[in-house]
Amino acid sequence: MKILSCNVCGLGNPRTVQKLRHSQKLHYPQVVSFIETKINKNQMEKVRRSCGFHYGIDVDSIGSRGGLSLAWRGDFNEILYGFEKKGGLPREERRMKAFRKVLEDCSLVDMGFSGNWFTWERENLPETNIQERLDRGVAMEEWISLFPDSLIQHLPHSFSDHCPLLINTEYRARRLVHKNFKFESWWVLEETFFEEVRCISENSTRDLLSKLENMKKGLESWASQIRRSRKMKKEVLTSKLTTLLKSDRSDENLAELIDTKIHLTLKIEKDEC
């Protein structure tokens, strides 16, 4: 593998970009990093793509200073062993062997996981359905020694054909923090909001400050109940999705899988309002 790092001192000049493309053709690196690009990320994306790098991360410059870009060639999708794929054509042994050799040469070991075995799935018909373990966490023994309690979880998902990987290096108890009252915009979207306000107001008979305090406590309690209800519904859907993902694919399973993903996505989107 070839990795090229370059302080380009600005990529706003077309001649500089031309020289950069020539350097890419000459050395053909698989990974490049550009420092001090001095252009915004939209401009940097165009330059990066013109150099043949369709995958990358670009960071805006601050005025006429800074700017970064990290780019790589290709989208890597490979498994280590044949049993990490279900459905479709068998993977070529030489490709899997080459991947295992790369990990061995880099002293990287698979960190394992909890959750569903496969991390990628495509097609909604049983006869064409394909599942693979394309996403994984690898680390050196030294890193594993530093974080012996680390855990990778394959999370249920409803928004992509790849499942998210959650890496926990250690457990930390949450501290209880006192929060000031904050009116949430989503409250007014709830059907029961105005009725709740009316009920709280009618049951408050003291001075204005006391009424405001009652309104605050009442709305916080009402909102807390809705959050718990939403959380419970999402947990039920997530649990159902986890079970469906682990089950064998059939017409019924795939139909229920799609329906559950849609409902879970709608619940999540509603919480984002």
Automatic annotation (TrEMBL):
GO-annotated molecular function: RNA-directed DNA polymerase activity
Domain of life per record: Eukaryota
Entries under InterPro entries matching the protein: Endo/exonu/phosph_ase_sf
Keywords assigned: Nucleotidyltransferase, RNA-directed DNA polymerase, Transferase
Protein name as annotated: Reverse transcriptase
